[in-house]
Design goal:
The complex is a heterodimer of chains A (292) and B (239). Chain A is mostly helical and 292 residues long. A two-stranded antiparallel ribbon of chain A has the order 1-2. Chain A has a single domain, classed as ABC transporter involved in vitamin B12 uptake, BtuC (Orthogonal Bundle), CATH 1.10.3470. By secondary structure, chain B is α/β, with parallel strands linked by helices. Chain B has a single domain, classed as 3-Layer(aba) Sandwich (Rossmann fold), CATH 3.40.50. Chain B has 10 helices and 10 strands. Chain B has a 6-stranded mixed β-sheet, sandwiched between helices. In chain B, strand 7, helix 7 and strand 8 form a beta-alpha-beta unit. Classes of the chains: A mainly alpha (292), B alpha/beta (239). The interface between A and B is medium-sized, with 18 and 25 residues. Chain B: Keywords: Amino-acid transport, ATP-binding, Nucleotide-binding, Transport. Chain B: This is Branched-chain amino acid transport system ATP-binding protein. Chain B: Belongs to the ABC transporter superfamily. Chain B: GO terms for molecular function: ATP binding; ATP hydrolysis activity; branched-chain amino acid transmembrane transporter activity. Chain B: One of its GO terms (biological process) is L-amino acid transport.
């Protein structure tokens, strides 16, 4: 019983990180109708920037700020420099360019920093707190929980409660009509990419201290889980990303705890297959048929 | 008097065949002009070229004498050139209220001013007030067209370009829309260029009618004269 509670709690913390990353995929999908396969590579590059800043200043918080800025800047640069020039009549060219970008970025990071895992120190204790004899979340897990929930709340407010959010949603849903109403749609698309890049960088940064350490492939598994979540929840749905992220996090935690780490990826794929069989549009999808 | 809207030598072509050929058209301030002609005459292309959605091969678009040709679609909109495109112009993923707020963004700075402006639109189009939290895709065709028109008017445009607002609507709804359009034009001095297949309703509220055929102006006369000219009606308007 104690073990179950512990696994559920760690699953929740891990799941919220997955949810954040899935949310970043939803944001870019809504802005550009593109599954950004390069999200993990740009996020990892941003975490390298955070690593350098933390190393130079000794402050985790300066590193966090650097990750957000680098993630946003890199994603905006990818959109302006690359994606804007890709034909957008079908989603395939954009996806292929994104996959190419993964190879270039990961190779560049590998050449620059080598294959070894660089340990990143968490700003809070990572040993679980024991409540009533049951080991639960660590202070770092609690920190992740609070940050993730705060970011989700902030994004919900931005998209639903501000005029900038209204323009972001309108531009994504109906670019031509939005332009006719005076909305600067190209700027909104860049902004969507930047926002998505910052959120993905944050998720990767929160994840790395709980893993082996930082290298070019640190966020790969996170991407696979988050991609599954985004497809589960429907690429259009922030709620779906949140619920699906927590579900996948708990599932991975339970399967890893009871059946072993090797079975976890299989469990995620089984879940994905099941949902695609029952609801091909995703659990929270509003549209009947997805275009990509 | 400087025309509110002028297109000068506008030439637009798909794959070498001109859809509009050296087209010249002026609309005076406060004037309602019905743009008529068969399918494929170039009505939609003219409106899209004016708003900037379709880049012309040659020619200029002027708003109150100022050349807009080099401006983007969104900058033309902010200068006061509004277009309600044919059919699906409501953002279906947003609610009625959000659609209206989107239209009010530029002309009504500040949350309170926007809310007041949107409230006035609900007074003008009462059916919309009951549906303010409905999503665009839940609306009927008439409600959508009302929303699109109300949203365009919220930006307090100088010139309004309307493409087939009566398409697929019941005659009663068409009459209501045309009535609002006529009243607004009279009260605010709004200039309207109205592309329509529904010739009778368009001419009933227009000051002047312009008939396009194969991308060129073939007739340009006061609305009453056009409605009463059997040869012209027969040749170009099909009734």
């Amino acid at each position: 019983m104690d073990r179950l509670v512990f696994l559920l709690a760690t699953g929740l913390a891990r799941g919220l990180v997955v949810a954040l990353f899935a949310l970043s995929l939803v944001i870019v999908w809504r802005a550009a109708r593109l599954v950004n396969f390069a999200q993990a590579a740009t996020a990892t590059a941003a975490v390298f920037a955070a690593f350098a800043v933390t190393g130079a200043t000794g402050s985790f918080w300066a590193g966090l700020a650097a990750a957000l800025l680098a993630g946003a800047a890199l994603s905006a640069a990818v959109e302006r420099g690359l994606m804007r020039r890709v034909p957008q009549a079908t989603p395939l060219p954009g996806m292929i360019v994104a996959i190419g970008l993964v190879m270039v970025l990961q190779s560049a990071l590998g050449i620059a920093f080598g294959p070894r895992h660089r340990p990143m120190v968490a700003p809070f204790d990572e040993r679980p707190l024991v409540v009533g004899g049951v080991p639960l979340l660590s202070p770092y897990d609690l920190f992740v929980l609070v940050v993730a929930l705060a970011v989700v709340g902030l994004l919900a407010w931005l998209f639903n409660g501000t005029s900038l959010g209204l323009q972001l949603r309108a531009s994504a849903a109906a670019p031509e009509v939005s332009r006719l109403l005076g909305v600067r749609v190209p700027r909104m698309v860049t902004l969507g990419w930047a926002l998505s890049g910052a959120v993905a960088a944050l998720a990767a940064l929160l994840l790395v201290p709980t893993e082996l350490g930082l290298n070019a492939h640190s966020a790969d598994l996170l991407f696979v889980h988050a991609f599954t979540v985004a497809v589960l929840g429907g690429l259009d749905s922030p709620t779906g990303a949140l619920v699906g992220g927590v579900a996948v996090g708990v599932l991975v935690s339970l399967v890893t705890g009871y059946l072993g780490a090797g079975v976890a990826p299989l469990a995620v794929l089984a879940l994905l297959t099941l949902v695609l069989l029952v609801r091909p549009g995703g659990i929270f999808a509003t549209t009947e048929v997805r275009t990509a | 008097m400087t025309p509110a809207l002028a297109v000068d030598g506008l030439t637009v072509g798909y794959a070498g065949a001109p859809v509009l050929d050296d087209l010249r058209l002026e609309v005076a301030p406060g004037e309602v002009v019905a743009l008529l002609g068969a399918n494929g005459a170039g009505k939609t292309t003219l409106l899209r070229a004016a708003s900037g959605l379709t880049p012309p091969r040659a020619g200029r678009v002027l708003l109150d004498g100022a050349d807009l040709t080099a401006l983007s679609v969104e900058d033309r909109a902010r200068r006061g050139l509004a277009q309600v495109p044919e059919g699906r112009s409501v953002v279906t993923e947003l609610t009625v209220d959000e659609n209206l707020h989107l239209g009010a963004l530029w002309c009504h700075p500040g949350r309170a001013a926007r809310r007041a402006a949107v409230a006035r639109t609900y007074d003008l189009f009462e059916p919309l007030a009951r549906r303010r939290t409905s999503l665009g895709h839940q609306l009927s065709g008439g409600e959508r067209q009302m929303l699109a028109l109300g949203r365009a008017l919220l930006a307090r445009p100088r010139v309004l370009l309307l493409d087939e607002p009566s398409l697929g609507l019941a005659p009663r709804v068409v009459a209501q829309l045309m009535g609002v359009l006529r009243t607004t034009a009279r009260e605010t001095g709004l200039t309207v260029l109205l592309a329509e297949q529904n010739v009778t309703s368009a001419l009933s509220i227009a000051d002047r009618g312009v008939v396009l055929s194969l991308g060129a102006v073939v007739a340009d006369a006061p609305a009453a004269e056009l409605a009463g000219d059997p040869t012209l009606r027969h040749a170009y308007l099909g009734f």
